[in-house]
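ugh ok fine here u go
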Amino acid sequence: MNDLLFELPLPEFFDFGVCLEYLNRSPLECLYRTDQEGVTRYFNLDNQPLLIRLTAPGGSRMHVTLLHGDIPGPGAAEWLARYIREWFDLDRDLVPFYQLAQADPLLAPLAEQHRGLRIVGIPDLFEALCWAILGQQVNLAFAYRLKQQLTAAYGGSLEWEGHVYYAFPGPEVFADVQPEELCALQLTRSKARTVLDVADLIASGGLSRESLLALPSPDAAEQRLLQIRGIGPWTSQYVRMRCLDDTTAFPVGDVGLQNAVKFLTGMDRKPTPAELLKLAEPWRGWEAYATFYLWRALY
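structure:
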């Protein structure tokens, strides 16, 4: 089955190939499979398994093709289209960012080299929070390993043409899970408690992406997240950046950001948060995109 479900128009300054390079940065990624032409991902919509492939054969429109499953109804198709737009930040006008980057000595080479790269988001709040929690104070490879183990143990899966595709577990799956079960997957006890607390909050309706976006400002959303035990400034800034569409998010405590600036500026040490804030003054309003492009200097 290769049914074209719909097409999405692609904005100016979008390069699917450059975004695929970002998606392909780790062989441990378990939630999608990439190749030179596109990305394949498993979704479970209304208890219906769907295997979706995204390509952009002409460069101006993204093709959303159904590889396996029943053709989704209008509501599910609308949800899927919105998810893909948010996943690749397709509704963002990047002209102001590129104008800013062109005038910045640090960003200009990166913006030229990776032109068309969009912040690849994590539209699902539970997944975004879990990914940030798993990534606290560990290297990226180990964070991927934790996500892989958590997804394999609790997420849905679909086998198709010799490959197993996974969907990240929903928060309701963890209702009766004990911290010890997550510790057996190599999560620390602190991370296990935080994942279960977040799962309970979201499953009970006490926290949602919609409620965070409805708050008066991104800072107010961050303050709400900081009320959760185990979530600090780095985690909340990361979620603002990858899930809440906040281009002003600036995770100054991020080791990758610090290492990128150290590498690109030739510093003999990592910059302090105060130095990063000073450096970012010309990036006002686009700090998250600056961070995303600086990360690209690391791989």
